[in-house]
Each structure stands twice: as structure tokens, then as C-alpha cells.
Amino acid sequence: MKKIKISLLGKVVIAIAAGILFGQFLPASIVRIFVTFNSLFGNFLSFSIPLIILGLVTPAIGELGKGAGKLLAITALLAYGSTIFSGFFTFFSCDAIFPSILPPNTELAAVENPGDFMLTPYFEVAMPPLMDVMTALLLSFTIGLGLSYIEGTVLKDGFTDFKEIITMLIEVVIIPLLPLHIFGIFLNMTVSGQVAGIIAMFLKVILVIFVLHVLLLLIQFSLAGSVSHKNPLRLLRNMLPAYATALGTQSSAATIPVTLAQAIKNGVRQNIAIFVIPLCATIHLAGSTMKIVACAMAILFMSGEPVSLTSFAGFILMLGITMVAAPGVPGGAIMAALGLLQSMLGFNETLQALMIALYIAMDSFGTACNVTGDGAIAILVDKIAGKPAQETAE
């Protein structure tokens, strides 16, 4: 008998539905068992965040130095610029839309201050992190940039092995336990009477982000079309097979062969496409950045917290760099961004769990937006590189 495999998105949807259902009749004594698990898991996640940053960001920045040249610099700058544009485009769009469709909801005070309304765990275990998030980020940038310049390989190999450990931690421990964590959050919110506002928020935010995804792709390919003097709609249409593949696989890496073939179909020279597409699958996450910024703003609006350009500008700029470290697993981008949400926007464990649930609910669309945008980056790099285009990845 063939074993049915449920995707992470499917597990999250089941966890949310089960949390709402069981919250209708489970006694508080049972609910507190799951609340206790949430407390332990949340503390472990807080402990893991600096390690995740150090283990993923450091080797990612170090790897960018390999074969560094004009083509690498051009591609990296375009990818970062596209990601940052996506972040600010999302901020200004959501800042105009969310106040009218997501009015501050006093019922969501429990999300911001869970101890005032929601059930408490039976016990807690302190798990202090080895360093704070900003220290981990600065240390990662410092070591990563150093690794990109030095000739030695011992430290590089060490951080490559550390990255494998952290990736395994995410894939084997954190990601499998996330649905149970989300189940506990929604179970507690249902018992506390907070879930109705959350579900309404989910549906509205998902619709807004989907529309913004389409607009972002139109902007990206309009720019690529104007630079290459080609019909932008035809260029975008040619990339639709990559979009559809990413919807199914939820993985930029798994979609690389299709993205590569469609970029070449759009007229990108093969040697350029072979270099740009795999690189952008790692460093160009405009769709993921859009989801994170929009979801963070939605949660802050709903919980009555202030949302300002001042606070989000730094968050978006740092997020563009941190996205380079997102591991190629479903939900990897939000895991890499948790540290920034915690340190720069003040998200507690409950808000982080809501971010994870809301992000994963749209994981396929974000990945599809990422890989489709890679095609636009490839067109721009092909044009900027000029006819000879002798520089390729070594």
C-alpha cells in the first residue's frame, strides 16, 4: 500500500483546523499540555535562531566569493536590488491597503500579550541563546566576508559542515514539529476566543499578497522587456512553466532545470543562463521577501502595534541579505528571517508562530514568484554583460 505523503502546507492547514476544532471542547487541563510543549519549543527556537543565522549566513556569504568577477557582482546586485524593491513595494502597498481592511482588533491583544488572556504552561525551561541575534548577524557578515577573500579552506570547510548540521536541525527537528506548535497556538487561541479575527486576517492577507505578486512580476518583466527591447508579456508567458513547476515542488532548486530552459527560450545566452539561474535560485527571493514583509505588517496592524517606515526600512535592508541564507526546504526563508522579526520588530513566540503559519500558507506562490523573477534577472544580466559575455562561473 502506497504511503500518502502530506506536504508541509497540508500539515499546517490540518494543524490550524484541528486546533480550532479541538479548542471547542478540550478541557483547559489538556490544552495546557500543548501550551507547555509550545513553551518548550518556543524557547528551543529562540536558542536555535542565532545558530541558524551563524550556520547559514556565514557560508552563504563566503560562497559568493568563489569565482568572484564582474558577472557575479552584477547578478548579486540585481538580485539584491530586486529583493529590496520587493520589500519596499510591499511596504508602501500594504501601508495603503491594510489600515482599511485590517482595522486594529482589540481581541488580538492576546497575541501581543499572551499571558494576559491565554492559558499558561504547566512549567517552563529556560534555554538562553549563546548570543543575541544582532551579534550573530554581525559575526556572520564578518566571518563570511573574510572567508570570501582568504585562500585557506579549513575554516570554510568547518562552516560548510556546520551548515549541514543546521540544515539537518531545520529539516529533521524544527520543520516536523512546526505543525504541532501551530496546532497548540490555535488551540490556545480558540480556547481564549481569539481565533475568529486571525482566520479573517489570513484570508485577506493572502488575497492582497497574491495580487502584489502578480504586479511585482509585471514590473520585473516590464523592466527586462524595456532593456532587451522585447515584449514583456511574451517574456513572462514563456516563464509560466517554471512558475507552475515551482507551485508543485515548493523548491527553487528543484525548479532550476525548467527555469534554465525557459530563460534560454527567452533569448538569454546559454552560458549566461547556466551561471545566473542557479545563483539566483539561492540569492534572489523577492517573492519570499514580499510575503514576510506583508505578513509582519498584517500581524502588527491587527495587534494594534505601530507600523512605520523607519522600523521597516532597516528590517527590509537586512532581510534582503538574510534571504541569501534561506535553506532550500519548504518554509526555509521564514526560518532564516525569525531572528530579524524578533530583534528588529519585537515579535514574541506567539507572533512568530502566526508568521510561520501565514507564510507557509502561501509558500508555493512565493517560490513561484522567486523563480519566475529569476528569468527577468537573467535577461538583464545577459544585456548588461554585452555580446562577448566571456565571463562565466568558474
Automatic annotation (TrEMBL):
The keyword Amino-acid biosynthesis does not apply. It is found in: Membrane. It is a multi-pass membrane protein. This is Dicarboxylate/amino acid:cation symporter. The keyword Transmembrane applies. The chain crosses the membrane at residues 12-34, 40-59, 71-92, 133-154, 166-189, 195-219, 240-260, 272-300, 312-341. Keywords: Membrane, Transmembrane, Transmembrane helix, Transport. It comes from Parabacteroides faecalis.
